[in-house]
Amino acid sequence: MPANLVVGAQWGDEGKAKVIDYLSKDTDIIVRYQGGANAGHTVVVGGKKYIFHLVPSGIIYDNTTCVIGNGVVLDPEYFLKECADLETHGFRVKDKVLISDSCHILLPYHRLIDEAREAGSSPERKIGTTKKGIGMCYADKMLRNGVRAGDLLDKDNLKRKLGHILEVKNQELVKYYDLEPVNLNEMYDFLLDFADKMGKNIVNTVYYLNSELEKGKRVLLEGAQGTGLDIDFGTYPYVTSSNPTTGGALAGSGVSFRYLQDVIGITKAYATRVGEGPFPSEILGEAGDVLRKLGGEYGSTTGRPRRCGWFDVQMIKHAVTVNGINSLVLTKIDVLSHYDSIPVVVGYEYKGKKLDFFPSQGLEDVKPLFAEFKGWKDDISGINSFSKLPTLCQSYIKSLQDLVKTKIGIVSTGPDRDHTIIMD
């Protein structure tokens, strides 16, 4: 059986969790393959809202097993709190979640360094990080100076390894950031407490996932953020610290590429991004505030207001190329019912020349080229049949599909699981 992938085609917050929830009913195993507790996925079922940060959102189905892959940086405090919150809603989290033994552990000092770096950055160099230590943990991973979940299963070796790590880390904390050094015994006890609570859930998930796929199990890969925030293919340096794209899904889960079948890209019918960085289709001023209020565009993790803009064809075509997307899901189209006319960015000009691609450099200097589409001005919230949509709304969807040259397989008309149109 195949593995399928859900990937964000914009700057995150596209509505991936709803799509993952929708697909999870036909899935055996859901894998989170990158990112950390800086991500927030929101699922609405029967009018009740659930917000996920580290635990895959497919946990709400009884039939699923959830895996936190080796590409994730796992914050024990956030993870245990999230498990406790979900268990109050009746979900058996700890019985159904496996943690990769190669998954890196985010430690309290990562957050402290993140806060110190962002506070000390000049305005033009601020990234807009959530200050949750994600980038600092990934940095230690690449420096080979990190703690992995599997280390927690060998107490003696853990203490020796932690001692070596803190010799280096404490010099950084004290001399560079003017922070207090980390106490070895306190950090060791912190990790042992997590190991006591979750040690039985730490396994070799690469072996587990490929073995289950070989047996015929169905796997769904879910990431955080989106293509525009990819460390390699996004708007660097205003990006996340990992690869939300297809390559990151394979590297962050260990699932063999031969199992990957469908890559499903998620995009809003408009665009948003959080934090700093170029945003060619951004709507400034009061008009941007209107769209933000209509769409409820505030971060589910931080509550930060999202910057809002119009649908950007060039960006989605970039996401299709980088990820190998073979089907798109269009979300939040109901939000656009407010408008008489809907602009869409159909291309860019850079220094007087039309670009045929999404540039790796100079995006802040491109001039967006717009086309206008008539709005439908009818409330379409909750409609779950394409034929019941207003003709102008149907036309808008078909036009986007033609412009990005990729089929739109699903359209979401509201937050609830049932507010979904299957196009095929």
Automatic annotation (TrEMBL):
GO molecular function, a single term: adenylosuccinate synthase activity
Compartment(s): Cytoplasm
Enzyme Commission code(s) on record: 6.3.4.4
GO cellular component: cytoplasm
Keywords: Cytoplasm, GTP-binding, Ligase, Magnesium, Metal-binding, Nucleotide-binding, Purine biosynthesis
Catalytic residues, chain numbering: 13 (proton acceptor), 41 (proton donor)
Pathway(s) served: Purine metabolism; AMP biosynthesis via de novo pathway; AMP from IMP: step 1/2
Alphabetical list of Gene3D superfamilies matching this protein: Adenylosuccinate Synthetase, subunit A, domain 1, Adenylosuccinate Synthetase, subunit A, domain 2, Adenylosuccinate Synthetase, subunit A, domain 3
Coiled coil: none
UniProt: Mg(2+) binding residues: 13, 40
Binding of substrate, residues: 300-306
This protein's record includes keyword Ligase: yes
Domain of life: Bacteria
Catalytic activity field: IMP + L-aspartate + GTP = N(6)-(1,2-dicarboxyethyl)-AMP + GDP + phosphate + 2 H(+)
Positions bound to GTP: 12-18, 40-42, 306, 332-334, 412-414
Main localization, broad class: cytoplasm
Residues that bind IMP: 13-16, 38-41, 130, 144, 225, 240, 304
Details of cofactor binding: Binds 1 Mg(2+) ion per subunit.
A Pfam entry, by short name: Adenylsucc_synt
Gene Ontology biological process terms from the UniProt entry: 'de novo' AMP biosynthetic process; IMP metabolic process
NAD listed as a keyword: no
Protein family according to the UniProt entry: Belongs to the adenylosuccinate synthetase family.
Subunit text: Homodimer.
Task performed by this protein: Plays an important role in the de novo pathway of purine nucleotide biosynthesis. Catalyzes the first committed step in the biosynthesis of AMP from IMP.
Protein known as: Adenylosuccinate synthetase
Organism: Leptospira jelokensis
Gene designation per UniProt: purA
